[in-house]
Amino acid sequence: MRLFTEIKIAGDAYPGGFSTGLTMHGSATMERFTLKSGNEEMSEGITEYESSDGIRLTVTKSKDGSALRVKTNVSNNSSRVISLEYLTSFALEGVQSDKIHRLQSFWSAEGRLRTETVGDLHLEPSWAHFGMRVEKFGNTGSMPVRKYFPFLALEDCSNGSITAIQLCLASTWQFEILSSNEDTLTVTGGIGDRDFGHWMKNLAPGESFESPEALIATGSSLYEVCDSLIRAQHPLISPVDEDMGIIFNEYCATWGDPSYEKVAGQLDRLSGKGIKYFVIDSGWYGADEWWKSIGDWDVNEDKFPGGMKAVADLIRSKGMIPGIWFEMEALASGSSHYNDKEHLLCKDGVPLTIGERRFWDMEDPWVNDYLGSKVIGLLKSSGFGYVKIDYNDTIGIGTDGCESLGEALRRKISATQKFFARIREEIPGIVIENCSSGGHRLEPSMMSLCSQASFSDAHETPSIPLIAANMHRVIRPDQCQIWAVLRASDTRTRIEYSLIATLFGRMCLSGDINSLNDDQWKAVEEGMDFYRKCADVIKFGKTVLIDQPDTSYNKLKGQQLLVREYKDLRLAIAHRFEDSKPVSPDLIGSEILAEYGSGDSDFSAKAWLYKVKS
């Protein structure tokens, strides 16, 4: 395979082959470039190209375990301003592939594996090897995991090889799979271009611009390449969060109506049960309709008299780390700043409004000072050690303020990421949870800034095991927070089903904890004990099997088995759905160390921790 890069500069001829509007790959811009140094191999190093008019492209390739980190820098050494319409983080040519893997994603149904052949995608070259075939996909907006994850894997079944790529970008991104005059594919990825992402970037003489990074891994199975990509993610996990501690979030108990008294009652029930974090979710601020009060962050003192420090101190007195929820980038219609146009994102000269939400301009120094006081100030003054940062809609193609809507979008999201970093700088050791209506920001650049992330907003649906297993392909399980919502009506089988689903990542409890009877609590505590025994396998292991049914997520049928290994230990997680069969791992020659659950009927579950004997 040839590893290189591409750009398209405004004013140059677009590519032919009936491809304009589908791709900018192969434009006249690239005809001016020649290779000056380095190589175009899948190996570490720097490759430089230069055009006849002095524009330089630098591709930096660095090894990260079994993966390769790739990015492109454009330097304008010409005598004129240039306008980029297209810039790839990477381009691969000569990819042998007959099968394409993508991960589809919508709210509460994240990460579903979609596998198609080259024929399915209609990418076979024409009889005359003329006319470009293009499969272009990605995400436009500020929720990078919507419709698709920024992930792609290309498999060659004839020789058992597979190449996988992840993009590290929290705004508009794209992949292109192209076929024209050969029986191989060309694959590119990076910022969504002018056609797809409304993106242009002006560079004056002497200026440069760097693409987001891409992670590329090759191997013999989807399990192997996904593991390589995940191990190339290096999140800033807080030292206090290294031990896989269990979270309790009160949201599915109060549904946005927390109070000091309710928290106190929940703490009495949780005391002594080994919960590490107690998180107060939405509704602690503003008026009763909390969803309309987002943006001001004034404590509702009817619910929390005297402010949030008293309840944070109470949580700490019970041996837990207090956490709190913010949606810091947004304002709702009840906010006193809802019409402060000079500090808001605008499009076409008016505040950008999505439903009843508007958005702060995170590049604005006033906004940073305001949020520094309201968010960071409250965290500090009240003594919170955990912050859940939510984000509940996308701003679409972009905003006013730059040479293009797409470039403004990229810059605004970059400013958000800088504020995440500021939180950590001003409150060393704080645990940051990345949430975006659940899983809409589960991509490497956002995950790198956080200790944990909400895997989904699928709080109680039976499809949680499917969604949680999907996440093993794209994020580290020790960052993947999965909810077990406990209800007073739950049978032991249902409790086991919910708790076993949390073994795909980090355990988070919620629900009717004050109404559970002793037998129900016994089942919960047994599940928590089993989770703690499995913590090292969850955190350090490698997933070697995800056997999922091809089923509707709303009408589940069949059964699922996931196996994760760490040294000589194995964790096997089995869930049964409707019309299911008994399912278990191969335990021949193994010693079972612990078990939890029954797995003896439809909609039941069982997990095994076992040791493989040499």
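The record above closes out task 2.4. Task 2.5 opens with a second protein, given below.
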Amino acid sequence: MQRARATGDTTGPSPAAQAEAREDAAEALAEASVARRHAGKLTVAEVVRRIESGPQGPKTTAVFDFDGTLIAGYSANAFFQAQLRRAEFGPLDMAEAMTAVARSVAGAIEMQELLGRAIAKWKGKREEALETLGEKIFDKALSDRVYPEMVAILMAHRKAGHTIAIASSATRFQVEPTARFLGVEHVMTSICESEDGVLTGRLLEPQMWGPGKEAAVRAFVRKRRAKLTDTWFYADGDEEIGLMEAVGHPVPTNPGRALSAAAKAHGWGVLRHSSRGRTTPELMTRFATGLFSLMPLLYTGFAWGMLTRDKRAGANLALPAWADSVLLASNVKLNVTGKKNLWAQRPAVFVFNHRNNFDAFFVGALVRTDLAAVGKVELKTNPITRMMAQFMPVAFVERSGGGAAEAAKALKPVTDLIEQGYSIMVAPEGTRVRDMIEPLGPFKKGPFHMAMQACVPIVPIVIRNALDVGGRDAKLMRAGTVDIAVLPPVQTGEWSAKTIDRHIAQVRQLFLDTLENWPDGD
């Protein structure tokens, strides 16, 4: 930073002036070095290290844009498609929307006007209905668009105790479900005018776009007696340049052309993510290839079982090969710690934390052989389950609402299979955990009763980042690496019905401790 100099002796600079000049030169050199270090492409690891080494506590603010930054694409598209499916838009509405978008891209109308036209279509809708729609759209579409890279950065800010906010030109109906999923309390959005819970079709001023968003963020920081120089800002839009220039930690994320140019000029590091986005034909083909490899593999396993007169041998050939095929076709790699624990003691009940539809593929690829499935008795009529039951044992369990005797009776099909040497693979949470703020759901007792009654160990399999390759309700996997830690077997020989709750809590704590302090690799 240059300082003003007083005029004086013209015969040459004084020693004090020379010292000041050297100080200025050193400071300029240091600033240039920092700019060069931060310029160019940033990695998530670099950003996390900067967060960890910087100031901690709530006086540091982290503000995230929404569309294109926290999620891939635009939430408005998901809302528009949902309304099309519900026949809420006619051909004229579609034509008007497409024309308005085209004019916005061409610069003929401002984004504020485009947003205003979209909100005008919501006139007469009840806020509760849009809140419900927003939750459904998040579950069906937006949850799988959240960038896992941005989740890692957001979690680093949370660990540092920073104040975290989302600032978006979208409405709260679009943003709040994702904010709840990420555990973000502070949300700044465009505000729809309403009367008695019914939308009027108008937006309130100021709108959260460009200068309006900058003013809102400045007010948010000022209200908390924090400083813009201590503020991190992540955004992708060209209209965000002014706010990027105002904060102390600008991080252009998936930036447009003008923001990229500004980043280069200012020496800002740039984040770019490709883990989420459109479902391309290649992505669908690769996953389908792995998924449908089940049929030829099952026939191969069936033939091998007939040849060896051993049904178990056929299943041990086909099913691990299927899990491997799905992972290979999807370009998903497993980074496993504690592999020796997979084979330390068999049979066993392998329990794993449940985040998405693909956890079972990860665990199946690890456990591999002599594996039996557990299902609700209602699944007996499911055609896929019936087909699978021809090649591997499936224990159909009745739900038990009674005491210990009824529970033991309900679990007898499982314990019978364990006595035959089969291991069981089950998620004790019972369902996929939805929100990122919950590292683990509550554990149900069933898997632990199975292990206790059969006198076999529990083997915890902890999955750290399943969401990197697919959201909670994703229908296909994306390329990536999933970290898995297999913990030592937990013996159940001394468990009893009186102590089982304590043992379940201890096993659950093993999961939490591992997720908090990930072990070193093998």
